[in-house]
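Supplementary Methods. Inverse-folding protocol.

Structures were first reduced to a discrete structure-token string of length 334. This string, shown here, constituted the complete conditioning input.
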């Protein structure tokens, strides 16, 4: 038998299970389903983008074994690039804001990435993590993954996440809900699903402090008040991955709602998730309530709560941030 039947870790990204979120489905009368992206080899949805960006660069002759990949990331893209990088013979240098969870920063170091933790700065500041990564690439001749503006990111979702959702729901999906970090997930999946059925609703779930609700609702990025503890999402500019994307509905989601969902799923459904998953699911619940029963709504369970034990699952942190982990799930729909 040919050994080509079997593939290494880079061949096992995607094709994640689609999990029914029982309580919210019962409460809304719609099927609310989450794709288990935390089951990817690097533990998040960003493995898809990492593989897509690396494969695209290889095809274009921009990467050869032994090369160094540099990227600015909230963590998960760095983890994905490092995992896929190891499997394919590349080293990684990861620039990360020091505000991100210590679990992600430690994991990156353990995986063997060179980690440069920088102070959190806005995109307009040359010290911004992403701008530092770009500068390092130019100075050292490294490959810059550029996840925000490299459309190989959204193409990965167009080629994998979208078709998987279509097949797993046998075309029954009526709405797709996503938050935005780079916008790759929302854009690529939306482009595919709209192509298969233009009536599939595309919904953005945005945390406070981000401008995507304002962009999709008002056509400008001026409204970005508030703040969120969700890591990996919360975009204030229209990235290349988001250009030309239209959504049917956008919601702003409070962290408390996302946290209530995360705790309910942990305690009653055996799902241990990070806060961006909670934001996504809150968006799905809002759309289910607004449009009524009978829908099939799909969203992503982006990463695991394991990466946030020192924050979301730490009683002192919860108290400091005035979050209540014991609110009833019904409060999310009120
Ligand atoms: N959730 C988490 C935990 C993430 O790390 C990211 C990626 N930054 C996202 C959601 C958003 O994905 P995307 O970059 O495709 O918009």
């Amino acid at each position: 038998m040919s050994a080509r039947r079997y593939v290494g870790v880079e061949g096992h990204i995607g094709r994640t299970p689609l999990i029914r979120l029982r309580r919210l489905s019962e409460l809304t009368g719609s099927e609310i389903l989450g794709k288990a992206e935390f089951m990817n080899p690097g533990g998040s949805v960003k493995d898809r983008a990492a593989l897509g960006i690396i494969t695209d660069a290889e095809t274009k002759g921009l990467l050869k074994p032994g090369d160094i990949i540099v990227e600015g990331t909230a963590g998960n893209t760095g983890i994905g690039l490092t995992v896929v990088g190891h499997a394919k013979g590349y080293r990684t240098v990861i620039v990360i804001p020091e505000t991100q969870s210590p679990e992600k920063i430690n994991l990156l170091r353990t995986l063997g990435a060179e980690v440069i933790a920088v102070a959190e700065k806005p995109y307009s500041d040359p010290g911004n993590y992403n701008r530092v990564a770009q500068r390092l690439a130019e100075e050292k001749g490294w490959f810059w993954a550029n996840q925000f503006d490299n459309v190989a990111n959204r193409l990965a979702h167009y080629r994998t996440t979208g078709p998987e959702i279509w097949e797993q729901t046998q075309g029954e999906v009526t709405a797709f809900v996503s938050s935005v970090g780079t916008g790759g997930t929302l854009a690529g999946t939306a482009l595919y699903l709209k192509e298969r059925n233009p009536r599939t609703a595309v919904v953005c779930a945005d945390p406070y402090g981000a401008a995507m609700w304002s962009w999709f609702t008002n056509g400008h990025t001026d409204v970005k008040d508030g703040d969120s503890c969700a890591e990996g999402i919360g975009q204030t500019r229209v990235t290349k991955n988001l250009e030309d994307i239209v959504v049917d509905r956008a919601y702003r989601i409070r962290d408390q709602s996302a946290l209530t969902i995360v705790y309910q799923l942990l305690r009653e459904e055996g799902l241990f998730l990070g806060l961006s998953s909670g934001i996504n699911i809150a968006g799905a619940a809002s759309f289910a309530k607004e449009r009524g029963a009978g829908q099939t709504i799909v969203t992503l369970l982006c990463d695991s709560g394991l990466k946030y034990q020192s924050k979301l699952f730490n009683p002192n942190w919860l108290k400091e941030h005035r979050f209540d982990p014991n609110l009833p799930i019904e409060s999310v729909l009120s």
